[in-house]
């Protein structure tokens, strides 16, 4: 089932590399608009939010649309790793507000080691 939006976390990437990747994947990116710590642009018709150091050294990439080539966070994270060569993390499935803390700490890690489930305490 396609997720209504996508959020992944990238290590050691910058928004310029992200824009180049998204331009290829989604369509040309508008220039980034900075609002406080947050950067926003449109990649094709998809609203994009980039939040540097959202969780420690990890940067959040949020695609606010279901109209992407990826069905879910994991397929986007795998594409990001393939394109950028940086470790990527994402939730294992759609996140629900009512999940307990233990489920909320379950993450997928995509790296040179492949895909694995990890515990990542972000809160």
Plain-language structure description:
The structure is a single chain. The chain has an eight-stranded antiparallel β-sheet with strand order 2-3-4-5-1-6-7-8. A hairpin with a 2-residue loop joins β2 and β3. It is globular and about 35 Å long. The protein has 123 residues and is α+β, with helices and mostly antiparallel strands. It has one domain. The chain contains three helices and eight strands, in the order βαββββαβαββ. The mean pLDDT is 91. Helices cover 22% and strands 37% of the residues. The longest helix is centred in the middle third of the chain and has 12 residues.
Strand order, largest beta sheet: 2-3-4-5-1-6-7-8
Q: Would you list the SSEs in sequence order as H and E?
A: EHEEEEHEHEE
Tell me the helix content: 10-25%
Mean residue pLDDT: 91
Strand content: 35-45%
Anisotropy-based shape: globular
Structural class: alpha+beta
Which parts are unreliable, with pLDDT below 50 for 5 consecutive residues or more?
Answer: none
The first-to-last residue Cα distance is: 27 Å
By oligomeric state, this entry counts as: single chain
Summarize the main sheet. 8 strands, antiparallel
Over all CA atoms, what is the radius of gyration? 14 Å
Counting structural domains, the number is 1
User: How many helical stretches?
Assistant: 3
Got a strand count? 8
């Amino acid at each position: 089932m396609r997720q209504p939006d996508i959020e992944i976390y990238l290590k050691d990437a910058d928004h310029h590399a992200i824009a180049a990747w998204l331009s290829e994947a989604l369509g040309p990116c508008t220039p980034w608009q900075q609002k406080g710590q947050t950067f926003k642009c449109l990649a094709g018709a998809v609203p994009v939010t980039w939040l540097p150091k959202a969780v420690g050294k990890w940067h959040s990439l949020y695609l606010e649309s279901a109209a992407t080539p990826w069905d879910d966070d994991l397929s986007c994270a795998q594409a990001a790793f393939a394109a950028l060569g940086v470790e990527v993390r994402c939730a294992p499935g759609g996140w629900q507000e009512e999940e307990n803390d233990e489920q909320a700490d379950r993450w997928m890690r995509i790296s040179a080691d492949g895909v694995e489930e990890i515990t990542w305490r972000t809160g």
